[in-house]
């Protein structure tokens, strides 16, 4: 019976004669007598809706479709649907089986981030799910991504709330493994802005820099949404003749003249020195801040 065949179609990327193809493989080996396969390739044209690209009937346990930049483009989510039937008896056929959707293009993992203003680095992996072709022998055998950040939806538009460890990354060709044919990493850190500005959302965008391959030219990867959780910032003060308010709210005065250590961290290389100078009248000694140095 063909109805109970478990074909389990799966899509993998492959370079064929220097051009990007997708291969639909299915198993197990069909029973005798000879069986043929009807393979329907489709892509997601809108949420929940598919558009047919190509159909073929083959005795082989695989089928190829080329990513030509027209019928099938980078950014598409592709499916293959396989039905088996006996040669000469097309009415004896198995139930059609769908592959999982294969996203062809560049992915960021994770696809979104939620981080805090605590100085920690969060690693984003940038990967290509399709192989990178080498058109020549020069250094064009890579995909360079220009990275940029943008503030989204703040009450007061300002600079983005995130900083990147690099402004561009290179995806270099290599053998495909799992869902990755090339990968790079970039670290994302929340900007500690000393402002109580609530949780803010920024966008990380990638743009291809001068792609040589026609397949990549019209392609823009999906953005990454980064939500930054606001953390309260510690404050200490030294003002007027100097009144001091410490991080934990203690208050005292310091009327001495000289250079003093105002604040020092015990966990990192950070300290603030103040210089206080005579600024009083004839009746009382008063000192004022006249200089500050911070490391």
Automatic annotation (TrEMBL):
Protein name, per record: VWDE protein
Gene name of the record: Vwde_1
Signal peptide: none
Entry GO CC: cell surface; extracellular region
Keyword Signal on entry: yes
UniProtKB keywords: Disulfide bond, Signal
Transmembrane segments: none
Molecular function in Gene Ontology: signaling receptor binding
Pfam families the record matches: Ig_VWDE
UniProt keyword Cell membrane, yes or no: no
Residue ranges occupied by any VWFD domain in the UniProt entry: 234-295
The organism of origin for this protein: Quiscalus mexicanus
Top-level lineage group: Eukaryota
